[in-house]
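Support case: acetoacetyl-coenzyme A complex. Customer-provided input:
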Amino acid sequence: MAVEVEIERETIRQSVRELARARIAPRAADIDRSGEFPRDVVDLFREHDTFAVAFPPQYGGLSGSALTLSLVIEEVAKVCATSSLLLAVQALGGYPILIGGSEEQKATYLPELASGRKIAAYALSEPDAGSDAGSMRTRARRDGDDYILDGSKMWITNGGVADLIVVFASTQPEARTRGISAFLVDGQSAGLERREIHGKLGIRGSNTAELIFSSCRVPAERRLGEEGDGFKIAMGVLDRSRPQIGSQALGIGAGALEYALGYAKQRHQFGQAIAEFQGLQFMLADMGAQLEAARCLVHEACRAVDAAEPRMTELAAMAKLVASDTAMKVTTDAVQVLGGYGYVNEFPVERMMRDAKITQIYEGTNQIQRLVIAKRLLA
Ligand code: CAA
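Agent response - structure generated as follows:
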């Protein structure tokens, strides 16, 4: 059984690797330059059932294993961080349903996300509630068979294009984190305005938006779990999704190292390939070793998620922290290996360096990851 799972995992990884190299890599620079949401990559993932990797077979998925998803996200991120984010956020939007949804909600919504027929988003952050997610001000008031949402959400990946948005809102503000509830909101709802945010440093093709709710009516049957379950659902989701940001970071770093290795072998100075110089070799060796160490941690966090181990919370935070810091360092060093050529957008490493930065910020800044780790260590 274990061997069969490994073979299937490797088959999925290999096919996504081929797809990424043949079809996404040639688009990556253009997606970055145009800053346009890559609908063609969404279609490609739909055609090849790539979104399904994040979801269990009983809900129309292919796997549902965090480790398998990690391998897939890493392969896509090696060539295009924006495209890998499409997969990570589809999972991020599906996990609240998996964790907090009723059987009926799972059967209704998850197959749509697994097939890619619907695009998902996860709306937790607000203009004044980022790291302190529990201080959110978006309200949901019960009105008969509906809730009425008022407030705004900020930095929402896929916010402008999502068909299904998981929105966290306070149903009982005085109860703080215990008064937050989660809702499945239709992207086309009346009373929902979506303002796209432009001018990002990296992941430029990714759609980022502010969502403004003005008396937005949501049927009560679209609430996930009970009133007040929302914050625990939100945190449980991040335990599962942070390792995937680690996977994305790994991919960005690995893509940059691969490019730097190729360049160092063909670039000649002082009569030899620069790869012959020990100074360069030590740099490349550190990049490889640091990535491999981060990969071990990301895979360990994914195994903990797959086994539903309680230590997944700290491992997820460690994986995201270490992999994103590693990606930042490795991509910066890759630019250094290429020298002046690394600094211009004719070569991909400057894009990778810009893309790496967001992995230290989203799904909880690395300062927040340290808080989560320290709290667990000290408990
Ligand atoms: N699983 C389940 N429950 C959890 C939990 C977890 N991992 N972590 C905390 N909880 C529970 C606690 O047990 C507690 O429950 P009780 O009330 O029953 O005691 C409750 O939640 C509140 O916990 P805390 O007191 O620890 O909450 P806090 O207000 O101190 O906040 C925090 C903790 C870790 C700082 C949290 O606010 C946090 O993670 N902040 C960062 C937010 C974040 O990551 N945002 C990213 C947005 S998503 C994004 O970026 C996506 C994208 O676009 C790609």
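The pocket of acetoacetyl-coenzyme A is lined by residues 89, 92, 122, 124-125, 131-134, 155, 157, 177-178, 231-232, 235-236, 238-239, 313, 362-364, 368, 371-372 (CB under 6 Å).

Case will auto-close in a few days if no follow-up is received.
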